[in-house]
């Protein structure tokens, strides 16, 4: 099982980047190969149909699409911005939707979020599901959130609470099982 892992955060000290690295470590422990990318690798202009008609799809969007296509599934950590997904992530999804075939169609994803607030970014994840599922991605039904993220991570970057690690590990295992089944079917 090969996974593409991306934190849709630009901040160097991002809680979502920390959460993604925990997820990647758990997935590796269960035998997955994980390609972790930085969102800044895929800096692209705002989606603009006139720009696309004139210059084609930006290389950064194409590179993101190639990395997704090379994987069987995806780990995606996203912050919540104003009750929704970050604009730069939505922009990247909009560009991906213009590539043929659409790179995320038929792929699967486990989405997760960490925030400093009490609800862990869940509102943003519900909004994120809409364009991903609309474009044919199988988003795992269970999502993982980390509320009060400023206090949730240890100095080494791992989660402090052993019960949280246990729940996250079970979710990652469940996702890997589902993603493997989907990948075998060639959906």
Kindly describe this structure.
This protein is α/β, with parallel strands linked by helices and 187 residues long. The chain has one domain (2-185): Rossmann fold (3-Layer(aba) Sandwich). Helix content is 43%, strand content 16%. Strands 1, 2, 3, 4, 5 and 6 form a six-stranded parallel beta sheet that branches. It starts with a strand and ends with a helix. The relative contact order is 0.18. The mean pLDDT is 97.
Share in β-strands: 15-25%
Write down the domain tally.
1
Q: Secondary-structure element order, as H and E?
A: EHEHHEHEHEEH
Helicity, as a percent range: 40-55%
Question: What is the CATH architecture assignment?
Answer: 3-Layer(aba) Sandwich
Kindly name the structural category.
alpha/beta
Based on CA atoms alone, the radius of gyration comes out at: 16 Å
Output the CATH topology.
Rossmann fold
> How many distinct beta strands?
6
Shape: globular
Outline the low-pLDDT stretches: none
| Average pLDDT metric | 97
Specify the CATH homologous superfamily: Flavodoxin domain
Q: How many separate helices?
A: 6
- CATH class division: Alpha Beta
The profile of the biggest β sheet is:
6 strands, parallel
Distance between the termini: 15 Å
């Amino acid at each position: 099982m090969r996974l593409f892992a991306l934190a849709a955060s630009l901040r160097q000290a991002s809680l979502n980047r920390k959460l993604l690295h925990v997820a990647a470590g758990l997935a590796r422990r269960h035998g997955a190969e994980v390609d972790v990318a930085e969102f800044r690798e895929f800096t692209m202009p705002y989606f603009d149909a006139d720009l696309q008609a004139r210059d084609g799809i930006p290389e950064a969007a194409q590179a993101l699409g190639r990395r997704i296509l090379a994987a069987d599934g995806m780990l995606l950590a996203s912050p919540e911005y104003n009750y929704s997904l970050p604009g730069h992530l939505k922009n990247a999804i909009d560009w991906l939707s213009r590539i043929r075939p659409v790179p995320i169609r038929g792929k699967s994803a486990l989405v997760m979020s960490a925030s400093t607030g009490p609800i862990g970014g869940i509102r943003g994840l519900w909004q994120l599901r809409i364009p991903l599922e609309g474009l044919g991605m199988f988003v795992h039904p269970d999502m993982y959130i980390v509320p009060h993220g400023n206090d949730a991570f240890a100095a080494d970057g791992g989660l402090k609470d052993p019960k949280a690690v246990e729940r996250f590990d079970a979710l990652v295992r469940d996702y890997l099982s589902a993603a493997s089944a989907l990948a075998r079917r060639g959906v």
